[in-house]
Amino acid sequence: SKEKIALFTIFGGTGDLAQRKLYPSLFKLYQKGYLREHFAVIGTARRPWTDEHYHEVIATSLASLNADPAAVTQFASHFYYQSHDVTDAQHYVTLKKLSAKLDAQYGLQGNRIFYLAMAPNFFGTIAQHLRSEQILTTNGFNRVIIEKPFGHDFASAKELNDQLTATFNENQIYRIDHYLGKEMIQNISAIRFGNSIWEALWNNRYISNVQVTLSEKLGVEERAVYYDNSGALRDMVQNHIMQIISLLTMDQPVEFTEHDIDVEKVKALRSLRTLKPEEVPANFVRGQYAATDQVKDYRSEDKISPDSNTDTFVAGKLMVDNYRWSGVPFYIRTGKRLADKFTRIDIVFKRPIVNIFNHEDVQKNDDENSRLNANVLTINVEPTEGFELRMNAKHVGQGFATTPVKLNFALDSQSVSDSPEAYERLLHDVLNGDATNFTHWDEVAYSWKFVDTIQKYWDEHTPTFPNYQPGSMGPTAADDLLQRDGHEWIYKS
Ligand code: BG6
């Protein structure tokens, strides 16, 4: 049977993440039969909720799914609430008793999943108490799921990791990067290693440059306090973008397994050229949004300091120093209050050297503009999910001119709605003990080391902010970054 057996303990059970993502995802796993009789959930937080109230919260968090009310009630009956303070040892004594009781009641075989949906400064305390109060079992599995931020630089990330590894082994730790749960991010490996045409061209002989764009339309919204201490570089580049870069650049894993993929990702991240401090300004651009008639500038947002130098935009050029990628720039960009909400990856191939269709005009052939267009493979991650390939074809009609055409594949709306949401997929992976789509410590470490150089330079040099208009694609310096190399962004607003 596909049924999985486990006790979930969610620290931060009253929080936003639990209500928006975790309860709906657990419910979907329940509807699909991955969770049936043999599971229970303990929600814990400081607020003094009763089980009855907790069940109402669960039902409310599922409201948009329009599920059968009887199924919702049945599902919610597996949830138990325990109020306490995670720094109080007594809490864990109660938790241990409740865990043992539920284990016996639901036949959970000692399988435990601890979800730390809380601020990271509590991770160490919780892990330590789980061990000292012997809440970890010896007859089943013990797995811990943590959310970002994993520190704010390499040193703090290491400290956090040391605290966790005092209790858990690396193979018991599941670090969520929700981008790794997205259908089209997982598809990067499928297209690369499932098609000889791509893998044959996936190198510096055929690829001119690669562009990764994670664009957001909204501003900083409710997470101002966190965001102002983080900024776009730490919030999006250190984790999501570095993971995407490693999936794009890694060599073929021997087998498609957690271990083999990690080996290749780490090799890829280690091959990234580390910048010297003085090279930062030429390779990385930061931005902060200004005001328009409709929206406030970043510094005027609620809970943001009026002289904040936090980056709400970042663009950068990464070089990978190995045989496959030498000479190929990887351009990345992400930011708040940009033109639209989307994620896409553009693989820009080299243009044909000669345009034979213009051959009579030798002069023209030297002119950049008379050259054929580059082929571009676009991986549309969201909201459209699919691939697009730009090619040159004959212009219809008399004479012989070429024109760009597009081959297009997009998942239909049924497939998109059937496809599990990132958190559902990732929780399922944890139940299966499969950490392929999670971030491993060595990947986190190399990503931080790369990002630290840039952040440090920025912290030491005052920017001129604000420097971009909401609704644009960031400051013009982000366009200059490519122009200097003779390239341009494929997506323009
Ligand atoms: C999160 C960031 O990791 O990713 C947010 O903290 C950002 O600032 C979010 O909005 C974007 O995720 P998605 O799935 O909406 O592209």
TrEMBL record:
User: Which InterPro entries does the record associate with it?
Assistant: G6P_DH (IPR001282), G6P_DH_AS (IPR019796), G6P_DH_C (IPR022675), G6P_DH_NAD-bd (IPR022674), NAD(P)-bd_dom_sf (IPR036291)
Q: Which GO terms of the molecular function aspect are on file?
A: glucose-6-phosphate dehydrogenase activity
User: Pathway listed for it?
Assistant: Carbohydrate degradation; pentose phosphate pathway; D-ribulose 5-phosphate from D-glucose 6-phosphate (oxidative stage): step 1/3
Q: Name one Pfam family in it.
A: G6PD_C
What's the EC number here?
1.1.1.49
Q: What positions does the domain Glucose-6-phosphate dehydrogenase NAD-binding occupy?
A: 10-187
UniProt cross-references to Gene3D superfamilies, sorted A to Z: Dihydrodipicolinate Reductase, domain 2, NAD(P)-binding Rossmann-like Domain
Task: State its role.
Answer: Catalyzes the oxidation of glucose 6-phosphate to 6-phosphogluconolactone.
Output the PANTHER family linked to this UniProt entry: GLUCOSE-6-PHOSPHATE 1-DEHYDROGENASE, GLUCOSE-6-PHOSPHATE 1-DEHYDROGENASE G6PD
User: Which protein, by its recorded name, is this?
Assistant: Glucose-6-phosphate 1-dehydrogenase
- From which organism does this entry originate? Lactiplantibacillus modestisalitolerans
Specify the taxonomic lineage.
Bacteria, Bacillati, Bacillota, Bacilli, Lactobacillales
